Every structure is written in structure tokens, then in C-alpha cells.
Amino acid sequence: MHSGQTAHRLGKIPLVLGMPVMISQNFDVDGGVVNGTIGSLKSIRYRTDRSSGRRYLKSCVVSIPGLDGKALTGLECGDYPIMEDSV
After folding, report:
1. Cβ contact 19:56 at 8 Å
2. What is the model's pTM?
3. Pairs from 10-18 (Cβ < 8 Å, separation ≥ 24)
4. For residue 7, how many other CB atoms are within 10 A of its CB?
5. N or C: which end of the chain has fewer CB within 10 A?
């Protein structure tokens, strides 16, 4: 996929639980989940295209040590959901 089609974002990237990831948008400025924050990939959710069988990232949970904001229901303190972004 050409970078012009993805607004200069990567078209594909391998995801491995535990890998370091960097937040690229300001999700929760008051809580510290901002562009440049580094955490580790804790879980991944995909959606599957029924016609092609291809999987696409839907959301993931990133564990960010040192942030102690109120946890969302079903998540541990320091875990933050990151949702898919469209181009």
C-alpha cells in the first residue's frame, strides 16, 4: 500500500503481545495518554472480512506503566484501550 493512500501511516505492521508501542494521538490529555507515550501491547482485537478472510485491527489494549488514572470497567489500572483509526 502506497503511503499516499494511508496518510503516510504504515499499511501493515506485525503485532506481538508485549511489544513496545508508541501512542500517536492524544487520547486522554488529562490522564497522560498522549502522542509520544510509550507502553506495551497487552491485547489485540481483530475484525475479519468475510469475503476475503483477511483480519484487520479493530482495537488493542496498551499497558502504560506510571499512569494511574481510574481504570475502565474490565481493565486493570494502567491499561488503556486504543481504537482503530480510519484514513
Report:
1. no
2. 0.76
3. 15/41, 15/44, 15/57, 15/60, 16/41, 17/41, 17/42, 17/43, 17/44
4. 9
5. C
* Closest to 65 measured CA to CA, from 25, 21, 29: 21
- SS3 state of residue 6: helix
Torsion sign (Cα): 67, 32, 79, 7: negative
Compute the distance between CA of residue 16 and CA of residue 42 in angstroms, rounded to an integer: 9
Amino acid letter at 1? Answer: M
